[in-house]
């Protein structure tokens, strides 16, 4: 496997203003009241599509900490075939995929499904969450940031 071209900490040091803006954008959906577990599923799916190992690992670990069921973490890549996801989660995942894979745009079917499950405000903030993870993925994939290691019991107890 190839090695990192640069690291996440380098990005924070080299462009702290960009880091702060992207970080803030990524936090708005939760601040607006969208379910944090739903947001994490969306971020996981976009990171899978974009091939960003750093972001995928980061959001797996975060999802585990906030209680996303492990089956959902394992099945998010094949969410269409997994009945464990709610209609709202399915709408959010379809929305995230459409916005991540933009060449085809957002179909009327995906838009209708999303607007059935989310208010206009919620959908706007969900879109901001998808936009932010796609920005992070561009940095993480371009620079091949090294994914975080899973904390051991000893490191978890120390924090």
From TrEMBL:
It comes from the Bacteria. The keyword Nucleotide-binding does not apply. Coiled coil: none annotated. Keywords: Oxidoreductase, Peroxidase. Pfam families: CMD. One of its GO terms (molecular function) is peroxiredoxin activity. Signal peptide: none annotated. This is Alkylhydroperoxidase. The keyword Oxidoreductase applies. InterPro entries: AhpD-like, AhpD_core, CMD-like. Gene3D superfamilies: AhpD-like. Residues 16-98 form the Carboxymuconolactone decarboxylase-like domain.
